[in-house]
Amino acid sequence: MMSGSQGFEGGFKDHFSGHSSGYARARPAYPEALFAWLAGLPAARETAWDCGTGTGQAARPLSAHFRRVLATDASMNQASRGRAGEGERLLYAAAPAERAPLRDGSVDLITVAQALHWFHFPAFFAEAARVAKPGAVFAAWSYGNCQVTKGIDAIYDRLYEGILGSYWPPERTHVEDGYARIPMPFAPIAGPAFAMEACWDMEGFLAYLDTWSAVKYYRQTLGGDPLALVREDMARAWGDPALKRVITWPLALKTGRMA
Questions:
Q1: Mean pLDDT, rounded, of the chain
Q2: Measured between alpha carbons, how far is 152 from 235 in angstroms, rounded to an integer?
Q3: How far is CA 197 from CA 31, 124, 159, 227, 249, in A?
């Protein structure tokens, strides 16, 4: 997951570095089945590039399938969060999506997890084509709103749309429509449906909501805490705050075979 916008013309807008440690702790994990499926698509499993890696949530599981994974992020703060305890199979570097520290024709798989909406699309796709081997695979995915229970979902929607609606960055609309409007200049590959799941108590769920960029901007702008506006209603809907509930996020996957 990308630390912020890599606007090629306008510069890097960093939405997440200020709370990267919380982001690493409170975000759900991608399903292992996704990485096993992706690893089976390219002709070889030598090198994968995870672009906009954030804290390495996609890069780490990829390293179990490829001989070498380069994880890049425009924010050194985000990239450095993922380095601890990693071996030679997984390397981190601070680099914008549009200028990768990779040789021409050197990559078998390119992944972008919850970050493509921040990139300058023509420049990034040109860079992806430059570093890709013939027949390499590109895969980007996003996840939008989650589902818990009907009552909790209603409070979630009030926070997301009613309280925070004007505080989301404009790029968020690409996530809301599952990347449908982002042009991909590669031959599409149909894939199975994937979803993330987490089992959290109420405080764990609120910690996830606290990682939202719109929450940060609300606080910076108004000085108050938007989560405090829904905490009481959330507690009533949740019941026992120690009760762990299953939270589900469907993934929107955009996959293509590169020439």
A1: 90
A2: 9
A3: 8, 30, 21, 22, 6
- CB-count exposure of residue 258 (10 Å: 0-12, 13-18, 19+): buried
Q: Which alpha helices (H) appear in the chain, and where do they start and end?
A: 20-26, 32-39, 59-62, 76-81, 121-131, 150-157, 172-176, 202-209, 213-222, 228-238
User: Dihedral of CA 8/179/103/15: which sign?
Assistant: positive
Helices marked H in 133-177: 150-157, 172-176
| Structure-token pair, residue 168 | 């989301």
Listed residue (12, 22, 211) closest to 118, CA to CA: 12
Residue 85 pLDDT grade (very low, low, confident, very high; cuts 50, 70, 90): very low
pLDDT-derived band of residue 25, with 50, 70 and 90 as boundaries?
confident
Tens digits of per-residue pLDDT, 101-115? 999 999 999 999 999
Give φ, ψ of 116 to 5 degrees. Answer: -60, -35
Q: 210-221: buried (b, 16+ CB within 10 Å) or exposed (e) per residue?
A: bbbbbbbbbeee
The pLDDT score that the predictor gives to residue 88 is: 78
